[in-house]
Every structure is written in structure tokens, then in C-alpha cells.
Amino acid sequence: MRDEIIKHIQSVIPSIPLHLISQGAEAMIFLTDKHPYLPKDIYPRGLSNKSKYVIKYRPRKPYRHPKLDRQITASRTSSEARLLHKLFLLGVKAPKLVAIDAPNGLIWMEFVGYKLPDGKSSSLKNWLWLLEKESTRQNQAALSEEVKNCLLGIGRLIGVLHLNGIVHGDLTSSNIVLADKETHKPSLIDFGLSSYSELPEDRAVDLYVLERALKSTHPVYAEKYSDWILDGYHDVHLEDGKSGARKYADTIARFKEVRMRGRKRTMEG
Question: Protein kinase domain location, by residue (predicted)?
Fold first, then answer.
């Protein structure tokens, strides 16, 4: 099945070298070194990486009627592309949109990240795992100032999303990437499940999903990581004045309710 999907995308964008880096239920992610329309000796402006691009492809769903499938694919692809552009306008660090082919379910975007010393990609999860392995009683690398500043920055990014009526929908330490090797500046990625919402419940669920993800992948340090993220989230709301403070209060109150519901479900098994 996967080979058939790859063969189809190669027919849509022939002569483009593709390297599959991940596959989920909704999309496949490819890496390429070729811009969709610029020759190799001309580099686009405004991109942090001018030699690598990410192609996100939503494959056909054989269980759906072909016409309905095309409509859903085009709609979801267009929505995600518009959201990426909106984030660029808001100054939120996320992959910049390069090109879109909505009918074929393709989004071409900026590659964000770099290789960590262990050879893995610079997702927040991989970076924290690396530091956690290096941590000792004498040297808590996983609780360093650079980690704190990174997590405060993540909280601020999420806060800007929520202040502008956007919920990510799939916040995990895999969907947060370190964009810069020197500053460890974070970037949010994978907005396939994102949506617009002004409901405190939706913002609270966003925060809760990330908290649960941190507890699952970083159990020893998760509480401190979450505290720092919430500190950054708090700060960016207060900078927005009274409306931001009200929005923060509503979200955190609902977040505590969502957290209690989650704990109750866990206890009930």
C-alpha cells in the first residue's frame, strides 16, 4: 500500500527526489532538496534552510467516495496552508509555506530543525531525552537555564496561538522542534489537526494534551517542564492586557477541570 502511495505522489510531482521521514494516519511526510519551481542556483528569501524542504502529502482514502475524498483532501490541505500563512503573519515560529497543491493534497513547506549530537532530529522530545541521559545528581542538564528558556518560549508560542483563536490540536514533544542550534529557539510543527476556536475548553484540552504527552515521554522531569511552559503561557497573556488576563484565567480554570476529569478516568481504569 505504501509503495502504491509513493508511486502516485511521484506521478504528481515527477523528477522530485523524495525521502519518506514519517507516516501517520492522515499524511505522509517527505524530505526533498528541490524547490517546487526555482532552479537549484536560485535560493528563496526568508527561509532558514534553503537546501531542504518538507512535503506533506495527504493520500487518497479508498474507503471514501472519490468525489468526497477529493473535496475533503482539498479543504483540509487548503485550511492547513492558510493557517501556516496566518502564523507567519503573527510572527509565530512554524514552518513557512512554500507552495500548495490542494487538489492533490500537497503542501510544500520550509524544513525546520537540525541534527542533534546523537544523530537524531532536533524535536523537543529527542533533545530532552539526550539531556536527561546526560543528567547526574551533580549536573542536572535537563533542568538547565537553556531548557527553562526553551520551555518558556514554547509556552509563549502556545499562548500567542490561543490569544489569536487558534488551537493546535496535537501538542506533543514530537510536534515541537528546536529551530536553532545555538539559541534552541522552539518551533511548532504539524498543524493538520489545528482549528479556530474561542472556547476555553479547547484551549484547556490543548494544554492538557501536552501535559499528558510530557508525563508519558519525560516522566522524571515532566512536572517541572509543564510548570515552565505554563509560566511562559501566563507571561504572554499578561502582556496582552486585561483581555489577555481574562482569557488566561478562563483557560487555566477550565484546564484544572479537564485535568481532574482526566485523573478520574485514569482511576476508574
Answer: 15-269
Residues recognised as catalytic = 170
Structure confidence by residue, pLDDT tens digits, 170-186: 999 999 999 999 999 99
In the chain, DSSP assigns E strands to 19-23, 28-32, 53-57, 97-101, 106-110, 166-167, 176-178, 186-188, 195-196
Q: CA triplet 32, 17, 58: central angle to 5 degrees?
A: 70
Query: Which of 112, 135, 1, 122 is closest to 53 using CA atoms?
Result: 112
pTM over 0.70: yes
| Cβ-Cβ contacts under 8 Å for 65 (sequence gap 6 or more) | none
- Please state the CATH superfamily assignment of the domain spanning residues 124-268 in this structure: Transferase(Phosphotransferase) domain 1 (1.10.510.10)
- How many CB atoms sit inside 10 A of residue 248's CB? 23
Determine the longest span between alpha carbons in the chain, in angstroms. 62
3-state secondary structure of 63: coil
Residue 253 scores a pLDDT above 70:
yes
User: What is d(CA 80, CA 94) in angstroms, rounded to the nearest whole number?
Assistant: 12
Domain ranges of the chain: 2-110, 124-268
Cα 83 from Cα 238, distance rounded (Å): 24
Residue 130: CA count within 13 A, CB half-sphere: 14
